């Protein structure tokens, strides 16, 4: 608990009404989370304006309202109104201060990039644990301490908002966590969720096609990613990605490269004998993780001895096999990621490669035809289906994908229902064939216009393999 005056100390603001020596019990920008003694930050979001929820926050016990505008409705005299230059910055600052700045007392590593963030964060966590540390990994698939998923009441977001992140770090510190490894999404960086979270190492993996529309264009997307280099003590950068190299050319932050680049601190050749997970992109993910450990002060020899034990996280090239049929579930939902996994599987598949995929709704439409073209290029057969259509018409999304095939293609089939598409792919596979189910990976739900429905690619594929064996036996 802090006094409001302590929370506002050294922060540019104008205060009116109420009193600044009021005790604060919490901070939130979500009016439904307000409790007695809370500060409510009425931030203007992409869809809603927090000012319309001010009265609700007051009714639930808010003692202060923070805004970055002056055009407010009249508020009761006993409610403190704080006007700040930027609500996004203020909530990041206030949540860190309220939690006691826990990030300062742990090593924090933040990973950004269009593809590979989840795999790299988990690889780093596994290496840190093997070397005697207690890491927490925070990202798309959840929160893991020492590799074990924990329950924590927070939204399912790649990068947690400040009001959830700093209390989590405070909790982790109390549990003896020494290192924090988190995914820094472009949206998280752009919305300032990681501001006032002291980051020791930033990792830049790659720049691909995703989230352009949400940012307002490619340049805004790249600038969001670039923010990480301005927030960290040291950068680890993919020396094989030209855009990544260009993004850090003018930074004053020290940079370590990984990959084939002659300047790379950890070159690809040092990994070949110990790493068993297939795919060049996974070797690059491992090199990024190893580089972070070397920057932390570990010797390359110490790190290398554990590389053979690295395991991919859930939904990343996750494999099922029965009666000679292999099924892979992968989160690949961008052209770069889909090409990487298809290229990997095409080199180790002795029979047909059958690909099931779709594209998400309300996301970058430009990638759809490109992903369709890639699927046909590498696969023997392709089944185009629904992914997370959200509020878009699933058939319209599929239509965009089909444009990548350049007209009719006998190797392509459309099955709108994702469950039926997966079952058709599995049932049509013969011994020696491989089935790739791409796009949703670890996800346990499907987002549709009718709401969020339970759905797991892994469970549907597992059931289909079992039923296939039963039918074949009969």
Helix content: 25-40%
CATH T-level topology of the largest domain: UDP-N-acetylmuramoyl-L-alanine:D-glutamate ligase
- Low-confidence parts lasting 5 or more residues at pLDDT below 50? none
> How many runs of DSSP E, i.e. beta strands?
24
Taken as a percent bin, the fraction of beta residues is 15-25%
Structural class: alpha/beta
Whole-number mean pLDDT: 93
CATH top level class name of the largest domain: Alpha Beta
CATH architecture group name of the largest domain = 3-Layer(aba) Sandwich
Q: Let me know the CATH homologous superfamily of the largest domain.
A: Mur-like, catalytic domain
* Overall domain count: 3
Please give the count of helices: 16
The strands making up the biggest β-sheet line up spatially as 11-10-9-12-8-13-14-15-16
Ends: how far apart? 67 Å
What is the approximate shape?
Answer: globular
Over the alpha carbons, how many angstroms does the gyration radius reach?
24 Å
> What kind of sheet is the major sheet?
9 strands, mixed
């Amino acid at each position: 608990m802090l006094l409001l005056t302590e929370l506002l100390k050294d922060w540019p603001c104008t205060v009116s009404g109420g009193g600044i020596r009021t005790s604060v019990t919490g901070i939130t920008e979500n009016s439904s989370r307000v409790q007695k003694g809370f500060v409510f930050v009425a931030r203007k979001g992409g869809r809603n304006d927090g000012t319309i929820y001010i009265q609700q926050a007051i009714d639930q016990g808010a003692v202060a309202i923070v805004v970055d505008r002056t055009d407010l409705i009249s508020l009761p005299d006993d409610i403190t109104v704080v006007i700040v230059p930027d609500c996004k910055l203020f909530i990041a600052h206030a949540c860190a201060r309220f939690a006691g700045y826990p990030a300062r007392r742990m090593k924090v590593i933040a990973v950004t990039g269009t593809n590979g963030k989840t795999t790299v964060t988990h690889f780093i966590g596994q290496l840190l644990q093997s070397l005697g540390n207690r890491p927490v990994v925070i990202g798309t698939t959840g929160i893991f301490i020492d590799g074990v998923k924990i329950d924590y009441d927070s939204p399912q977001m790649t990068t947690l908002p400040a009001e959830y992140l700093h209390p989590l770090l405070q909790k982790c510190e109390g549990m003896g966590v020494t290192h924090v490894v988190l995914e820094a999404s472009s949206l998280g960086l752009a919305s300032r969720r990681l501001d006032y979270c002291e980051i020791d190492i930033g990792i830049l993996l790659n720049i691909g096609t995703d989230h352009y529309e949400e940012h307002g264009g490619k340049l805004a997307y790249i600038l969001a990613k670039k923010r990480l280099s301005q927030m960290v003590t040291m950068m680890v950068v993919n020396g094989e990605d030209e855009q990544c190299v260009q993004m850090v050319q003018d930074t004053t932050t020290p940079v370590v490269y990984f990959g084939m680049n002659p300047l790379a601190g950890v070159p690809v050749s040092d990994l070949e004998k110990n790493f068993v997970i297939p795919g060049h992109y996974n070797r690059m993910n491992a090199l990024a993780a190893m580089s972070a450990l070397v920057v932390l002060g570990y010797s390359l020899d110490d790190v290398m001895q554990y590389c053979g034990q690295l395991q991919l996280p859930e939904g990343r090239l996750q494999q099922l096999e029965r009666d000679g049929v292999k099924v892979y579930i992968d989160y690949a939902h961008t052209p770069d990621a889909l090409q990487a996994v298809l290229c990997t599987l095409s080199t180790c598949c002795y029979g047909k490669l059958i690909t099931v995929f779709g594209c998400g709704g309300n996301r970058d439409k430009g990638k759809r035809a490109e992903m369709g073209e890639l699927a046909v290029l590498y696969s023997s057969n392709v089944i185009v289906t629904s992914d997370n259509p959200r509020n878009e018409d699933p058939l319209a999304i599929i239509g965009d994908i089909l444009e990548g095939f350049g007209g009719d293609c006998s190797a392509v089939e459309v099955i709108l229902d994702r469950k039926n598409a997966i079952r058709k792919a599995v049932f049509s596979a013969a011994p020696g064939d491989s089935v790739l189910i791409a796009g949703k990976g670890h996800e346990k739900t499907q987002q549709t216009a009718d709401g969020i429905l339970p759905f797991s690619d892994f469970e549907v594929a597992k059931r289909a393999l079992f039923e296939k064996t039963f039918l074949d036996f009969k």
